[in-house]
Write a structure and sequence with these properties.
By secondary structure, the protein is mostly helical. It has a domain of 105 residues. Helices cover 78% and strands 0% of the residues. It has six helices and no strands.
Amino acid sequence: MSDKRLHYGWWVVFAGCLTLFSCLGLARFAFGVILPGMREALSLGYDQMGYIGTGNFIGYLFSVAVTPGLLKRLGPRVTIVTGLLIIACSLSGLALCSSYLPVLSLYLLTGIGSGLANIATMVLIAHWFQRESVVVPQDLWCLAMESVSSFQGS
């Protein structure tokens, strides 16, 4: 008798896709979309716009350094939720900003949240679809990783 239920790992992949849409699509790649309006509303110079983008990158780079330790201490789920909460709060705060320094600070936090959620999601997906697993064949593991990774290029 075969079990027709969907492997729980696929629900994790689905949640991972939504997480990557949030932490990459909304938090990182939407910067180019909102930048012209932000430049006009805040009278930003090109140097300031560049520093805001750099702040996001520095925040993401910081996350790359601290996420492994947080994953060991908190686990992937708590790390992902923390990253997504940082993104939500910092992007919401951007709507209230009226000057350059708060925008720079909040976009730095957005980068931190983006890195936390992205890296922890990849670890969680890899955990659910381990290559050595008897339950999940290697072709399904590859499909799961490709499904989640396809959102990184968008």
